[in-house]
Amino acid sequence: MQCIFCKVDSSSSRAIEHIIPESLGNIEHTLPRGAVCDVCNNYFARKIEKPLLDGSYFQLSRFRNSVANKKGRIPTAKGVHLQSKTIVEVCKSDEGLSLFPMHEKDNDRFARSILKNKTGSLILPIGPKQEGEKRLMSRFIGKIAIEALAQRLLPTEGWQEEIVNKEELDELRDYVRWNKGKFDWQFHTRKIYNEDFVFKEIDNEYEILHEYTFLYTAERELYFVMAIWGIEYVINMGDPEIDSYKLISIQVA
Q1: Which H/E stretch holds residue 59?
Q2: Is the per-residue pLDDT at 217 higher than 70?
Q3: Beta strand segments in 105-166, E
Q4: Of 123, 140, 166, which residue is a domain's last?
């Protein structure tokens, strides 16, 4: 077996690759052992996923949607308790919300306010627009795109060699794994539904954390399309530019 990123022998690799990180709620979309070698798996976890997902955008999204990490912990959020004018840390659990003053000097004022007032107001941030380095985000999307394509080919005999030997993927592969390329790989983003939107099908109701698919255009360009909490991300798998997809989006709109 060969790793679909670095192309080295991955027969002894032990890690199961999560196409979308577990900390974003993914437990079922995976690749089998050896699809991604342990070295590449660790690299993506440390150098791309952790710095990106530790940012306030994804932390607040996980808090609002109660998405826990591998250890079962939901990120906390910082808010303001209006009655005591106290900055508080907000924790989520099965029992509900818990509030704690961020600074020890505010403990007494916060406690007096809670005892005095039967009701109160808590302000929580909606969260900033997606933050951080665009290059890091585009490498994150590109990594997911290559793995999702591998997953699509899984039922095909020789699927791994097909991905490894696909020269059209080499530029994106090198960008994602080795950070090669002078310019950021472009991606398109837009909101397509609210993160708490409830979909209905006959007798079923459900929310969507993430979903993805592929778009193959008449110009023979392959686009990867992904949505996380209602935000759509699109990347061209064969070219750093995304101008043709923007034209498609305008025509559809």
Answers
A1: helix 56-64
A2: yes
A3: 122-123
A4: 123
225 with 196, same domain?
Answer: yes
3-class DSSP state for residue 119? coil
Cα–Cα distance between 105 and 90 in angstroms, integer?
17
Q: Is 206 inside a domain boundary?
A: yes
Task: Tell me the one-letter amino acid at 49.
Answer: E
According to DSSP, the residues that pair with 201 across neighbouring strands are 204
**For residue 31, is it within any domain?**
no
Q: What is the DSSP string of 72-115?
A: SPPPPEEEEETTTTEEEEEEEETTEEEEEESSGGGHHHHHHHHH
Of 111, 122, 147, 128, the residue nearest 237 (C-alpha) = 147
Query: Angle of helix 170-178 relative to helix 134-153, nearest 10 degrees?
Result: 130
The domain tally of the chain equals 2
Is 117 within the bounds of a domain? yes
pLDDT in tens, 62-77: 999 999 887 888 999 9
